[in-house]
Every structure is written in C-alpha cells, then in structure tokens.
Amino acid sequence: MKKTHLIFSLVLFALLVEFFIVLHPIAIFDTDDWNFIYMPRIPVPIIGKWNPIKVFPEFFMPLVSYIGAYTVYPLTGKYCLSLSIANGLFICFIITVYFTEFYLLIQKKYKLSTVKSLLISVVFIGMHFCAVAHGRKNNVFLFYAYDMTCVYHYILSTLLNASLVMHLMRIGGLGAWKTLAKKNKIHLALWIYFAIFSSLYSSVVLGAYLGVELLHALYKEVKGKSFNVKSYWTKNRPPLIVILVWFCSFIIEKTGGRAACFATGIPHNILSSGKRMVFWFGHFNIIFVVIGAAVIILRIFFLKREYLVEDAKIALALCLTTIYIILLSAVVNYTYVERTDAILPVAFWALFMLMMFVGKMSEKIKYGNTILSLMAAVSVIGTVYYSNTYEEINYEKLPYENCEAFVDDVINQFKEAESQGETEIELVLPEFNTDDNWPIADYASGSFSESLYFHGVTDQKIDVEKMVFTKRKNKEFGIN
C-alpha cells in the first residue's frame, strides 16, 4: 500500500509538472505578482497589515520566488522562466498532497482495493480539470486564477485546508491528537496554523469541517441527555481550541488595511452574491451534471439510510461553506462568487461529496469496476481534450511567451541603465484604460526595482524616477 501511494504521488507530480511548467507555465505579470515575489513577511499574523492573516501565501510566494531567483536563474539565465519553474514545482507539490490525501482517505475509509481507489482518484482528479470546461477555447479549470498571486492566496490556500481536512478524517479527527507521536503533533500543528492563517476564503473548509464535527458531538450529548459544558469542553478540547483560533483570525483580519475597503450596502450585496452563486453553478458542463445526478440517484437507491449521518455531515459542511462564501463576498466584493479561485471551497465539498458516494457504492454495484473504469476513462479523455484549451493564468490571459517578453523588456531597461552607471530610470510600460493603469499600476515603481535588485538580477538598486505608459508597448506584447 505504501509503495502504491508513493508511485501514485510520483506519477501524479510528474503529470502536474507537465501541465503547470510545460503546457501552462504561470508567468509573473501584474503589480501584485511583482510585489509578492520579493516582499517577504515573517510567518505570523500582523495586526494592522494590509492582509494581516495571509501568512501562508505571503510567506511562501516570496520564499519560493527567492529560491527560483538564486538557484534556477543562474542555470537558465531566464528570470521569468526561473520563477515559473520554482513556483510551478511548489504548486505541483501542494496539488499532489491534496490528491494523495484523497486517495489515502478513500482507500482507508472504505477498505477499497488498490484498483478501485486509483480509479476513484482518477475520476476525482479529472473532475478538477474538466467539470467547468466548455468548447474548444477559453476554458478554465478548478485550479484557475487571475494571476500567480491569486493562485497562492486562493487556490493553494484552499488546497492546504482541504488536504488537512481529508487528513484529519483519515486519522480520526482532532480527537486523535493525544495518540499522535510528538513529531506528528508538530507537523499537524504547523499544518493547522498555516491553514487558518492563509485566507478567509480558504480557511472556511477547515472551519466548516470542525464546526460540523462539534455540532454532531453536541447533538449526541443533548440527545443522550448527558450534556455538560465542562464535559463537552474536555471531550472536544482540540477542535474547540482550533475553531476559536479560527474565529480570532477574523478579528485580526478586521484590523487590516484591506478590511477598511470592504463594501457597504451589505443586505443588497447578499442578494447579489447569492444570485451570482446560483449562476456560477451553471458553469458545470453537461457531462459533469449527468454524472453527478446519476451518482446522487444511485446513492439514494443503493445505500438508502446507510452512511446517512456521514453524508449529512458532508452535505452540511457544503451548505455552511456556500453560505459563508456568499456572506463573505457580500462584505468584500459580491462579484467574487463568480471567480473560480474564490469559489473553490464550495467546489471541493461538492466534488468530495460525490466521490464519497461513489466510494460507498463501488462495493454495492455488481459491475462497480467496469463503471469506475468508464468514469475514469471519461475523466482522462476530457482532461487530455481540454488541456490545450485553457486560458493562461495571468491577468491579461496572454500567451506565456508574451509575458516573458514583457519581463525581459523590463529587465533590459534596468540593465541598460545600470550599464550606463545610472541610478534612476524612466520605465516604459504598457498602457491600460484604468484609473491607476491596473494591472501594471502607476504605484508599482518600487516593486519592479526592488524585485530585480533583491533577486540579484541587477547589481545595484535602480530607482524608477518616472513610469511612462504607452500603447506602443501593448502592441509589442500583444496586449489588447
């Protein structure tokens, strides 16, 4: 079993590397990318910071980028490619952990054979790449985001939480804390810490799971007429502590600079957010809808009341997460519910619930292996078919080569100034029809100069005296 899951992880990692580094490498492009690749933060929540609790993305994105700049860049001589490789490998690692945790959970929970566990895992993996794909171009997948920054802040943060939840399910929840070895306790504590302090949009996966577990424990005590506050605290201390820390993260986030920009008119925004959430569910393609409906019908027919409590808990976690995302988006920006990266926590619970149904039914249906093989084949074919149709992960959805050309042009301007002994530069950049020239914002001068200096691309720090925006650069890099 250990050998099988290791092979599964290695093969999966290799395929993900092919996808995220060869087929769809993620380039740095917009202001946020240039800012977060060089600006390190200490790995603790900071009251009053712009993003007080975003420890995981804001610690690891610059860390990985520095590793790319100082290990890969000297080998390739290509700055943009070096950061794409380093960050791509980290992204592949997190996604591999996520899918491996699912494989281990499905195998242990339902005592399935290796073949069935692999087939169900292949279906689960494939659904992430083709569940919301339509047509032959401009598709997205469930790991899609606007830019590299959003991949860290939303996608990886959600996968970190989802992996943790599946891991906790596999080991018996936080109630098993006392039985863990000291080394495993340290690993789990760090995992929980980075999961909570990742993003409010992502940590709900952990919060919903723990909330449902605590509600279930409370229900059992009340039903058995044995409820006692002290006893309840004693029996559920680890999850209660973790969920209290999670609630504290909201208070800390409220002190941040971004929280001051949160929306007003919240009641109206809740309605708008809810409507857009319903609209987003319409993004699922017909094949996924048919498979999902068939799985739900078969679950009702074959399992009836079996696993009812377990399924109800997952369904409740899905409902709580959906409501939470709607409410949070109403406060932050109600259009966020249209974003694949922000809605990933909801998509995770929906896919997870369907796959749990599949796992339970695989032993009940006579031709289970045949059906699973067909589902896996459809998932693989769909993923391969759509693999060249996805939009690129950068704000302007440009081909990677165009983003690389833009980065090289910025570097060449700095290098030329450096070769002439200058300490200041007028940086010529693409022009956009926005108030602050977003996505290459007019306040980003320091991000360019400091990224290149701290990453060792320039030998001395060259300040940007003036940013000059021109449509000529748009034409040069294929920007509409």
Q: Taking all residues together, what is the mean pLDDT?
A: 94
Number of strands: 2
Structural class estimated from helices and strands: mainly alpha
Provide the spatial order of strands within the biggest beta sheet. Answer: 1-2
Counting structural domains, the number is 2
Biggest β-sheet: count, sense, barrel?
Answer: 2 strands, parallel
Radius of gyration from the alpha-carbon trace, in angstroms: 24 Å
Helix content: 55-70%
Shape annotation: globular
Taking pLDDT < 50 over at least 5 consecutive residues as the criterion, the unreliable ranges are: none
Could you spell the SSE succession in H and E letters? Answer: HHHHHHHHHHHHHHHHEHEH
Range of strand content: under 5%
Distance between the termini: 52 Å
Number of alpha- plus pi-helical segments: 18
Give a topology summary.
Elements: H1 2-23, H2 31-36, H3 55-76, H4 79-110, H5 114-130, H6 148-171, H7 182-196, H8 204-223, H9 229-235, H10 237-254, H11 266-281, H12 286-303, H13 308-332, H14 340-361, H15 368-386, H16 400-419, E1 424-430, H17 445-454, E2 463-470, H18 471-477
Helix pairs in contact: 1-4, 3-4, 3-6, 4-5, 4-6, 5-14, 5-15, 6-7, 6-8, 6-14, 8-10, 8-13, 11-13, 12-14, 13-14
